[in-house]
UniProtKB/TrEMBL annotation:
Record-annotated membrane-spanning stretches: none
Biased composition (Basic and acidic residues): 1-16
U-box domain sequence ranges: 41-228
Magnesium listed as a keyword: no
InterPro entries: ARM-like, ARM-type_fold, ARM_PUB, Armadillo
ARM repeats: 87-129, 158-200
A Pfam family it matches: ARM_PUB
Region (Disordered): 1-31
UniProt keyword list: Ubl conjugation pathway
Name of the protein this chain belongs to: U-box domain-containing protein
Gene3D superfamilies: Leucine-rich Repeat Variant (1.25.10.10)
Organism: Taxus chinensis
């Protein structure tokens, strides 16, 4: 489904310092976001150093390690497999409760993208953690997305794709909250573009048709935002058959 957000440089405090102690593999080399996202990891990569930083008591080390992991798993399925197998999921989950908003955000996006690999879901489910993991991640993103600067970062970080996926999978129980977050991100022009590019319109229309009452209201509000000042998006919404369920809802 959909296409990923085009790589762009992020703010220095977000991921530009994706380095940690004076380990050779983690020295600050000013790698661009694009170069990190496209880097294919292998079993010789210094996973141990990243995991140690995630578990560190230093907020800066935690933030930088989570930011780097977030970029590695944004577009690369092989990296999602290797990083999950390295033991990154558990410390990332613990960082959802970090007192640092950027660490929370980086951990949320990393976890949501890790969950796009089915075997990761199975392993987490076997541990009894998939639903609380996704719930905590989406809840944290919901809180973060209320601020303009966090909306910008969430869009650039690739949050929209996993949110659309959460809306498609009603078994996780996060459809309503994901719809709210998408609505927050649709407040920005770039958010609208990415929601449409990631296949969000048919998913939103489906929620209007078969979702909970609250989910229908959130999805309708997001569709209305998408349609504002865009003939193209209005046409796409009409093609998905949105009028009958919208009339029923009204």
């Amino acid at each position: 489904m959909g296409r990923f957000v085009k790589s762009r440089e992020v703010e220095p405090h977000d991921a530009g310092e994706c380095s940690s102690r004076s380990r050779p593999s983690m020295e600050p080399t000013k790698l661009s976001t694009a170069s990190i996202e496209t880097e294919n990891l292998d079993a010789n990569f210094n996973f141990k150093g990243l995991i140690e930083d995630l578990e560190s008591t230093s907020i800066k080390l935690q933030r930088n390690a989570a930011a780097r992991l977030r970029l590695y798993v944004k577009n690369n399925m092989d990296n999602r497999i290797l990083i999950a197998n390295s033991g990154a999921i558990k410390p990332l989950v613990s960082l959802l409760l970090s007192v640092d908003p950027l660490t929370q955000e980086n951990s949320v996006i990393a976890l949501l993208n890790l969950s796009l690999y089915e075997n990761n879901k199975s392993e987490i489910t076997a541990a009894g953690a998939i639903k609380p993991l996704i719930h905590d991640a989406a809840t944290t993103l919901y809180t973060l997305s209320s601020l303009r600067e966090n909306k910008d970062r969430a869009i650039r970080a690739g949050a929209i794709r996993p949110l659309v996926d959460l809306m498609e999978d009603s078994s996780i129980g996060m459809v309503d909250k994901a719809a709210v977050v998408l609505g927050n991100l649709a407040n920005l022009p770039e958010g609208k573009i990415v929601i449409v590019d990631e296949g969000g319109i048919p998913v939103l229309v489906e929620v209007v048709e078969v979702g909970s009452q609250r989910g229908k209201e959130y999805a309708t509000a997001t569709l209305l935002q998408l349609c504002e000042d865009s003939y193209l998006y209005r046409t796409l919404v009409l093609r998905e058959g949105a009028i009958p369920p919208l009339v029923t809802l009204s």
